[in-house]
Amino acid sequence: MAKSKKGILYEGTILGFFFASLLMRHRAKIEGKKYLEKLPCQVIFAITHDSYFEIPSLSRVYRALKPRPNLAIMAKKDFLSGNYLSTNYFKDNSFFRSIFKILDKTGIPLAIFNKLNLISIPRPFADTLEKKGHELKQEIADQFFQFKTKIVEGFSTVVFPEGTTWGFGGLKKIRSSVYQLVSNAFEQYEKKIYILPINVKVDRLVKGWKDVFINVGQPLFILKSREEFNECLHHTLQKLHTITFSQVGAYYLKRISELSQQAKVEARLTRANLCAQLENAISGINAKVQEKILPAMDAKLVDKNYLRKKTNRFIWYCVKKKYILKEPRKNAEKIYIINRSKVLAQYPEKIFRKQNPVGFHANELMSLGEQTIEPIFRATVQADIFA
């Protein structure tokens, strides 16, 4: 193991991320805590990566580790840019963004990232416009050498194997960073480096506190060809997916929008309609989870009171973002109209998640297998919501 470089400042930094998660109203829930105890000497933490929003909650993973290893973290270049906080958090809140700009200017975040042994890796698919191919390859090689050195010294590493937050929803292509580190350590130093797979999903499309589901898998050692290695890691991370209410609600809106578009009529429903149909969808999904056809689901969704609260907070979010429009009526139950053009809107991969979060979360659920998901919702959507 690496000689310990942890201390009060290091532990205080991790604690700072923990408090940041509370400030951002995270409710983190870790499954598979048993795999965080008595780890192999060194591991590569292979973590899914949809956005920077969930990063502070990963401090809970570190705090649950026994023993706590020394870490080197693979990250993209803007962590070391000097303006990381102000460009990635609270973009819609001028007050907090101003505070983060001040913090960035103090240099404290940059000092913290250096203390955490953060090593930036260029992303070839994103940076090729700025640098020539040979320059980029050399920079990547130099940075990977730093990681290989850390592994030889006994450090564990944190890697986001998808390499980007860009995407249309669902697990993205696995890049070869983990493969290179594992194969290099075994071939050159005869060191077996285990992978600790972690899938993180956030229930984003609800008002208020956000549930962050961190599903930790069993450490595994993979020694295969590059393609087989990446396929195995992809399959392992996919099995650790957590189905959230946001995914279910988003796919429901997408399916209704598609059907109403085909029928060339508006989809109109009451709150009672929406709640009842989402309850049926959850019931159908839970049956597939129990049969192990689908991966884990937020277990509390089977509680009708919990589900009703989630539904109400989801409706609030969708009305605010204009995915659902209120039909003005007096002395009668509210009628909601699905804004199908917004639900079905398409954007380039780089901005899709930010421009259409409902579409992104719908695709997350669909990525588990449309042949399994679609029939559940086909049986759920009632024809009388089309007027």
Number of strand segments = 12
What is the percentage of strand-forming residues? 5-15%
Mean pLDDT: 85
Class inferred from helices and paired strands: alpha/beta
Helix content: 40-55%
- Poorly predicted regions are 124-129
Shape: globular
List the helices and strands and how they pair.
Elements: H1 8-23, E1 26-31, E2 43-47, H2 59-64, E3 71-75, H3 84-88, H4 94-106, H5 108-115, E4 118-120, H6 124-127, H7 133-152, E5 156-159, H8 177-189, E6 194-202, E7 210-216, H9 226-239, E8 242-243, H10 245-263, E9 268-269, H11 271-290, E10 296-297, H12 304-320, E11 324-327, E12 335-338, H13 340-343, H14 352-355, H15 357-366, H16 370-378
Parallel strand pairs: 1-7, 2-5, 2-6, 3-4, 3-5, 8-10
Antiparallel strand pairs: 6-7, 9-12, 11-12
Helix pairs in contact: 7-8, 10-15, 11-12, 11-16
Report on this model:
The structure is a single chain. The protein has 387 residues and is of the alpha/beta class. The chain folds into two domains: 8-76 and 121-240, no CATH class; 243-385, no CATH class. It has helices at residues 8-23, 59-64, 84-88, 94-106, 108-115, 124-127, 133-152, 177-189, 226-239, 245-263, 271-290, 304-320, 340-343, 352-355, 357-366, 370-378; strands spanning 26-31, 43-47, 71-75, 118-120, 156-159, 194-202, 210-216, 242-243, 268-269, 296-297, 324-327, 335-338. Helix 7 (133-152) packs across helix 8, helix 11 packs across helix 12 and helix 11 (271-290) packs across helix 16. The longest helix is centred in the middle third of the chain and has 20 residues, at 133-152. The protein is globular.
